[in-house]
Design a protein that fits this description.
4 helices; 4 strands; Alpha-Beta Plaits; 22% strand; 58% helix
Length: 184
């Protein structure tokens, strides 16, 4: 088929075709938007209804929990929580003297060595200063006890008084050392 129309009419036909095509596209877009509106509008109403019912339920729950019984219970629970925090802090900072006694009693002592007194006091942090006094049948017993106590990893700064080494037999001794709680 041969197109024998002049150029001006061809141009008018193309413009007319483009106008119809644009009108069709605008119509399809309008129908699509209208359909989307019809789908989203009920969804919007549903969500608004749910929000309203949830607000009512929330208000009822607040009214139920604002009763004097619940307020007192909440205050009591808050008080227990504060006390529990204080107890927790106390146990974190607490030094267990029983652990120090366990370490001291676990140290190997010769048969001829006896402890007369034990004094334990907290110094800095979780360190404890221990003072032991005792009696040894011989200086060798005291030396053996010194070797046993210095071999303990929890015990440091072991010091015997100079008078502990004067007598060869029936020796009274005084020992000071430091026990660290962190390693217990």
């Amino acid at each position: 088929m041969i197109n024998l129309l002049p150029e001006e009419q061809k141009r008018e036909l193309r413009v007319d075709l483009n106008k119809r095509l644009m009108a069709t596209l605008w119509g399809v877009a309008a129908v699509s938007l209208l359909s989307l509106l019809f789908v989203l509008l009920p969804l919007d109403f549903f969500i608004l209804g749910e929000i309203g019912s949830r607000k009512i339920l929330l208000k009822q729950a607040e009214n139920n929990y604002n009763q004097p019984d619940f307020v007192l219970l909440g205050d009591e629970i808050d008080g227990y929580n504060k006390e529990l925090g204080n107890v927790s802090e106390y146990y974190k900072k607490h030094v267990y003297f029983s652990n120090a006694l366990g370490i001291i009693s676990g140290i190997k002592r010769p048969d001829g060595l006896y402890l007369n007194s034990i004094s334990i006091e907290r110094v800095e942090g979780k360190n404890m200063k221990v003072v032991l006094t005792g009696f040894g049948k011989s200086r060798e017993d005291v030396l053996e006890f010194k070797d046993s106590i210095t071999s303990q990893k929890e015990v440091s700064e072991v010091l015997f008084s100079p008078s502990s080494w004067i007598k060869a037999k029936n020796t009274d001794f005084l020992l000071t050392c430091k026990i660290t709680q962190d390693e217990i």
